[in-house]
Amino acid sequence: MNSQKVLDIFKEITTIPRESGHEEKIGAWLKAFAAERGLAVKSDSFGNIVITKEAAPGKENVPTLVLQAHQDMVCEKNAGVQHDFTKDPIKFIIKDGWMIAPDTTLGADDGIGVAAALALLDSDLKFGKLECVFTTSEETGLDGAFGMEKGFFTGKTLINLDSEEEGEFCIGCAGGVNTTAVFDYTPVSLRGGWKTVKLSITGAQGGHSGEDINKGRMNTIQQMARFIYNEFQYGAQLSIFKGGNKHNAISRETEAVLVVPNPVNTITRFNDFGKEVKAEFSVTEPDVKFEAEAYRYNEKAIDQKTADAFIKAIYACPHGVLAMSQDIKGLVETSTNLASVRMHEEGKIVIVTSQRSSIGSACKNASDKVAAVFKLAGAEVSTGAAYPGWKPDVKSKILKDSIESYKKLFNKEPIVKAIHAGLECGLFGEKFGGMDMISFGPTLIGVHAPGEKMDLETVDKFVALLVDIVVNFK
User: N or C: which end of the chain has fewer CB within 10 A?
Assistant: First the structure.
């Protein structure tokens, strides 16, 4: 088994639709993969799959080892790009040692983890019993892991293959919760004689709402609200507002339609506003664009009272880092992400936010704080099911084994850390108990955003490390 085998499997995975909540095709493909090789496979009502390879001769007394990755991917694309994630294969290029999806997400999060586990199942390497667990809807709230029943897998040592920085071992992560606000509004007629203007902010970096929340990137929803908040002084009506997409991604694009007395003046003010904001984000957002144009539109507007409350709420809503860890230098402890605004149903505006923290009470506090802002504005607020964090265990046996393996292979010390993103390890630890776990992977950049890329040299190291740990596990 080598990294080319893993990459070949991953390339095949990029042709299979697997958006969160729609893993039917990747699930069927995984079952077929197992059946073709005579491996035991089972699934549950949530679409989770475990493929088991029995121990090689002489390895029967080795404890069962669990490899875990998630089937789904975040499906994001740049504005104007024609790509249907329900049927189109991911279009990637290989350039300067990177595999890159220029206009969409690549899905290496966590397709490369799936591929590595499958390559081991398909190899002639000698190791103990291996259970490869592939969960569903990880990206939308760890749904598969939440629904998994105890006993679905039996091993007590688990390697999660969903980390994104080679040379780093993750032994802890944040927990999280989603907080959703809904404004009910009355559709009203556009003011007679006034004109409509379309405003858009595009080209922001976005990124992972856990790993990238401390990098000073622009939230386009809040910047649009910032402009409209001031534009209301000229009597503007708000007709459309939509921005962001996934709960775990920072908003990259937002657009709005305003009804105004003088489009030229509004367009001029928006262009000037864009110059100011681009200067504020000159380092982190070199490619962001602010565009305004006259727009033919004859539908309804949001009643002014609700529009005013809505804009004030999303402008005031906390976004970004709320607290840094007092125990681990440089680690974000608590954050919140103003993720998306949608008007799919007439008369309703839906705002999705997500909160993360390595401390359960701090996560609840962040959610309550966001909820309070929207409740003050008159919105209906609900919270989803919270998922737990993963408390680090520095005395972990699999951590000790992995460090020894890394030093032997690469002649240097790996970094041991906890992360602000969420991993399914927290749920497995809480649900099954007694689990010894670690997470690692190759270097991925820009996950959850178009342009996601994977460092191929680090895939070589990732595969070599995984093989060494699995073969020598005792």
Answer: C
Q: For every one of its 474 residues, what pLDDT tens digit does the chain have, with 9 covering 90 and above?
A: 899 999 999 999 999 999 999 999 999 999 999 999 999 999 999 999 999 999 999 999 999 999 999 999 999 999 889 999 999 999 999 999 999 999 999 999 999 999 999 999 999 999 999 999 999 999 988 899 999 998 999 999 999 999 999 999 999 999 999 999 999 999 999 998 999 999 999 999 999 898 899 999 999 999 999 999 999 999 999 999 999 988 889 999 999 999 999 999 999 999 999 999 999 999 999 999 999 999 988 789 999 999 999 999 999 999 999 999 887 888 899 999 999 999 989 999 999 999 999 888 999 999 999 999 999 999 999 999 888 888 888 899 999 999 999 999 999 999 999 889 888 998 998 888 889 999 999 999 999 889 999 999 999 999 999 999 999 999
Q: Are residues 167 and 183 in the same domain?
A: no
Q: Determine the Cα–Cα distance for residues 403 and 159; give it in Å rounded to an integer.
A: 13
Task: Return the biggest CA–CA distance within the chain.
Answer: 84
**What are the structure tokens assigned to 201, written together?**
């902010």
End-to-end CA gap in the chain? 20
Residues 183 and 219 reside in one and the same domain: yes
- 154 and 182 co-located in one domain: no
What is the residue whose two structure tokens read 């958006």? 19
Residue 445 shares a structural domain with residue 372: no
Q: What pTM does this model have?
A: 0.79
Q: Which of the following is catalytic: 138, 139, 166, 401? A: 138
Do 358 and 399 reside in the same domain of the chain?
no
280 flagged as catalytic: no
SS3 assignment, position 53: strand
The one-letter amino acid at 462: F
Beta strands in 361-423 (DSSP E): 380-383, 415-419
Cβ neighbourhood burial of 228 (10 Å; 0-12, 13-18, 19+):
buried
61: tokens are 């007394």
Q: Which of 19, 23, 72, 255 is catalytic?
A: 72
Question: Residue 84 belongs to a domain with what CATH number?
Answer: 3.40.630.10
User: Can you read off the two tokens belonging to residue 468?
Assistant: 């060494």
98 and 185 share a domain?
no
Distance CA 206, CA 202 (A): 10
Q: How far apart are CA 254 and CA 340, in angstroms?
A: 9
C-alpha 268/C-alpha 234 separation (Å) is 14
Range of the domain at 300: 177-383
User: Do β-strands 130-135 and 65-70 pair in parallel, antiparallel, or remain unpaired?
Assistant: parallel
72 is catalytic: yes
